Amino acid sequence: MDTHVIQTENLTKSYGTRIAVNHLNLTVEAKQIHGFLGPNGAGKTTTIKMLVGLLRPDSGSLKILGMNAAGDKPRIRERIGYMPELPKFPKHLTGEELLDVYGRMYNIPKETRRKRIPELLKMVGLEGRGRDRIGKYSKGMQQRIGIAQALLNDPELVILDEPSIGLDPVGMVEVRDMVKEIVKGGQTVFFSSHLLAEVQQICDHVSIINNGNMLFTGTLDEVASKAGPSRRLVLEVQKASDSILHALKALSFATVNTNDNTYTLHLKTKDDVRAEISRAVSAAGGVILRMQEEGGGLEDAFMSLVGKEAE
Q1: How confident is the model at residue 228, as a pLDDT?
Q2: Which of 5, 8, 9, 68 has the greatest number of C-beta atoms within 10 Å?
Q3: Is domain 4-219 in CATH 3.40.50.300, yes or no?
Q4: What is the pTM of this model?
């Protein structure tokens, strides 16, 4: 059985002289939460529109669920769910009416719609608000009804374009929980975002693009190691001294910056070196008040990859 839910080879799309997506090779396996990252204008939405059949590629191949998916393919569309960036729904409809319209488009039987719509409204946190008009929904509620319509046909693949855009921190957490819930049901989620902290908390795999080019694709651990160790340990001591600075500078696995009673160690290793640092500071007569690790995550990796491409 083909485990590739999405597979593109040299997928290319131009607008006039501007290449929006450039020979993109992307693979998404079943049951992954796969984050699609890039700065604004990187080509994320163009790629997604080709995946769902709203744009036809100029060249290259595109398979969804093992089937050739370039262009308008209703047989594939009925097996995927899609929420566009900042979805716009008719304001005069209620949430229930909107989902019922989409359900009829998918040829979902009336009895199934009657049962499924309340379940989805509850899942996306709109229980009790299904009879309110969409014109009265907040931005966060409109995002939620957008996710509900993307799940209506019980799809094998759910594609979300910037699902957290415009949401407050509480809304972001709720969307994050919803995405985790979808995958528990055995589905695959592919979503684009420029919010790195969001992606880091829910994704197994990421693909990073910029200027239409794939910069990296792999697991979160792999992207961090590809960008190189950029971990930092911030050390706050009770009282700074030359002997502490000398002891820290003698450590072979770090370079040291100092600011009053705070030392920042830029680590050249992936090992856990906190005990060694603690012993060095104690031996130099210092008392550690705080030791905190920074960096080394997706944000550092992303900035490194995008920065290298710009060079």
Answers
A1: 57
A2: 8
A3: yes
A4: 0.77
